[in-house]
Amino acid sequence: MTLASPSLLVTGLRKQFVRPAVDGLDLSVARGELYALLGPNGAGKTTTLRMVAGLLAPDAGRIEVNGIDLARDPAGAKRSMAYLPDDPLLYGKLKPTEYLEFVAGLWGVDGATAEPRARHLLDWLDLTKHAHELTEGFSRGMKQKLALAGALIHEPQLLILDEPLTGLDAGASRQVKDLLLSHVAKGGTVILTTHILEVAERLAQRIGIIQHGRLIAQGTLDQLREETAAHTLEDMFLQLTGQA
Amino acid sequence: MRARPGSALWLLQHEVRLFWYTTLSSPSGKAPRGFHWKLVAAWLGLWALLHAGAWFVVGKLAGGNGDTPQQLVIAASVLLVASFLFMLSSALKSSVEVLFDRGDMDLLLSSPLPSRSIFAVRLTGVILGVASIYLLFLAPLAHVGVMQGHPRWMALYPVLLGMATIAAACAMLLTLALVRWLGARRTRVVAQVLGALAGALLFILSQLPNLAVQSGERGEGMLMRLAKSSAAIDAGSLVWLPGRALLGDPLAAAIVGVVALSAFVLTVMLTHRSFTRGLQLTAGVTGSHKRPAGALRFRFGSDLATSVIRKEWRLILRDPQLISQVLLQLLYLLPILFVVFRKDDGPSLAVGAGLTLLCGSLSTSLAWIVLLAEEAPDLLQSAPANARTIRRAKLAAAIGPVLALVCVPVLWLVWRAPLSGLLTAFTICGVTFGATLIVMWTGKPGERSALARRGQGNGTGILFEMSHLLGWGALAFLLPYAAGQAQPGIGTVAGVGAAGAVAFGVPVLAWIFRRRTH
User: Fold this and answer.
1) How near does any CA of chain A get to the CA of B193, in Å?
2) Rounded to an integer, what distance in angstroms lies between the CA atom of residue A69 and that of residue B448?
């Protein structure tokens, strides 16, 4: 891991299914940055994130995570990141404690490091009182919070989240947002996709807008405002994606 | 005929439509929901064949037009009691499905429909579902009976429906009682296991002679005594009432009908509120034992393989469907164990083959659950963990329980007859490893709940599994047989060769035809 390198560097990324899903995407996200990737349905957001997480092989292009080439050293690159899809990666018949044990085992985190983290995360996310229940009985919000705890158990530098706030109530949403901001404050990097533009507006330091697999605009909120002459992010988004 | 929307009849039509969509209209689940002529033609063809078979059977059984022979009454009674046990098993499974698995109960209960109507329709749905398969297979006997001069045999229809009603009412009441006593989550497990046990009870009863042999009595003697004492009971006795009802005795059929109707009405009248309460309980289920926050216990620090194995075993132990299937297979193991632990003579050749077949079947189920029904594949793939280590750990998680389960009887066999026991141990290891590899290479991934339907759309894989199982089963029978002979005959040697070729060759074929996504 090189400290000078960005947390995520994507160059010329391409992926085609029936039609091109990602079409020559270039993206750079610095360490300690919270980056929101926005786009209409089918724009290529999830495909991009799945390629970055190593779940989908790109047709072309290069992905570097903290200076490590994902294609050359996938295990090395994955070691410093965590991926959270919109449908939480949980096992219904495991309890939260057992789930965290398993995820820690996957990332090779030793017990002395993992246990205090697990206690802290369960406590912070208000899951300790549910720690001995099977996750199959959890609400959507509880599942999402537990999956987030699993993603953070190995303290990844780069956290990739696909629609992390969909279906959460106000309380759970606030807890997740606080956790993401805390991760960034400690030098971590967060890349998230969301359809809730207000979340991007309030949390993200930079926003990227993707359409037809290409990044059509990128920058801070002020930069995007200048570029489009629109006032709200919603207006900017609709204008840039031609839906206004 | 179109029923008034919101009426019980209208809801019943909805149930029937759902039954059609989910079971009859689309065998693959992908085809449109229309009328599938091929499927209907296949069922009709099967039904015609059953009628042909029934013609032959009825001609031999019923004899002339006079009084019904007592043996026929006894046979009909046994048939009906056996069917009832299986009906109870199916009804328990259906009750659990209706109560726990169907996603439409919230919608129904939030509608202005009276809960009594909802419950009556759901119970009727369970009854029709349970009775349909027995009507399909047994109705040809009644039809042929009518053609051969026994019009009363048409009583089979109401009697089977009556028995299905009694079974469904018992199952529903039991499920609701379990929800009250044990809570919703445990009920799901217990009801599924009870369903499996009810189905297996008949098999256990059929193995009573083996138990008798174990206790020193001759099995044949016991059977003979049972048959004689059965014949000694008068045909008019209450014991044979089910058989008489099935064969059209008006009084007996009326008794069954009245009992069934009463069971239905009482169940609907008395329990529709419990039913709603039961559903509310299931909706709120999040686990029954809440420990205080300070009691957090972790077992961190395990290596990758241990973490994976521990996770898989936890999931297996908490999977009611899988556990009931394993318990069922263990029940079928019991008669083999009676033979294994018998004291009078050496273990029979069939024991090794039986244990081998059992291990092959069990490891196939476990391997599919562990390897191909992974709930969070993206989690494993996004981790920096070695994929090969994960795969090996999963293989160990699938194989370990099977070998642990049979190690005691196998060690007993080795102690009593070393060569035969060692050969059995060899075939058990071979079938377990081979079956697991075949599933890994040719199995079709799916959700855990689809275990019973895992063969759909994967005919080649199932063919490999079955032929491999039979190959090892034959080898387990023939190897100790050949080893026990001073000079095995050419037929025996050829048999061993053929079985060995299948047992070892099929995994190679499975590897050649493996799914490239693995």
Assistant:
1) 18
2) 35
